[in-house]
């Protein structure tokens, strides 16, 4: 398994990732965004197939570019958090969706869909 894992990691590269702390409300009721922290993941980035996009929530399907990420890292997604983790790909921010765990005892990894963040 070790040789296969090392061969698989050749396709992974460092990708900047961002996590947001839970926001809060001040005394006047104004919402304050949580602080952003950055970290790096090792992931393989691939183009999506049409069937991948079908799994996205309806309101996230038309955001443009979507990619598949394969990584050992555990990341927060739009399904599991109000503040999903984001990654930077090709100079743009992407939110993570649809986590799948692949446990085959040869190459265990997680699959995420990275959906381009549209700034409102």
Protein model, in words:
With 120 residues, the chain is mainly beta. Helix content is 11%, strand content 44%. The protein contains 2 helices and 8 strands; from the N terminus they run H-E-E-E-E-H-E-E-E-E. The strands form 2 sheets. Strands 1-4-5-8-7-6 form a 6-stranded antiparallel β-barrel. It has a two-stranded antiparallel ribbon with strand order 2-3. Strand 2 (24-25) and strand 3 (31-32) form a beta hairpin. The radius of gyration is 16 Å and the shape is globular. The model is unreliable at 1-8 (pLDDT under 50).
Task: Please provide a brief summary of the model.
The protein has 120 residues and is mainly β. It is built from 2 helices and 8 strands.
Give, in spatial order, the strands making up the sheet with the most strands: 1-4-5-8-7-6
Main pleated-sheet profile = 6 strands, antiparallel, barrel
**What is the tally of helical segments?**
2
Straight-line N-to-C gap: 46 Å
Order of helices and strands: HEEEEHEEEE
Would you tell me the structural class of the helices and strands?
mainly beta
**Proportion of residues in extended strands:** 35-45%
Rg over CA atoms:
16 Å
Q: Based on CA inertia axes, which overall geometry fits?
A: globular
**Overall pLDDT:** 81
Q: Total number of β-strand segments? A: 8
Helix % is 10-25%
Show unreliable segments. 1-8
């Amino acid at each position: 398994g070790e040789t296969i894992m090392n061969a698989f990691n050749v396709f992974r590269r460092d990708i900047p990732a961002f996590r947001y702390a839970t926001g809060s409300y001040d005394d006047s009721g104004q919402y304050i965004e949580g602080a952003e922290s950055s970290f790096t993941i090792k992931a393989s980035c691939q183009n999506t197939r049409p069937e991948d996009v079908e799994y996205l929530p309806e309101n996230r399907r038309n955001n443009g570019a979507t990619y598949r990420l394969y990584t050992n890292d555990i990341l927060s997604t739009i399904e599991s958090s109000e503040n999903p983790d984001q990654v930077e790909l090709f100079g743009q921010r992407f939110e993570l969706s649809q986590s799948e765990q692949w446990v085959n005892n040869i190459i265990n990894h997680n699959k995420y869909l990275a959906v381009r963040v549209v700034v409102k």
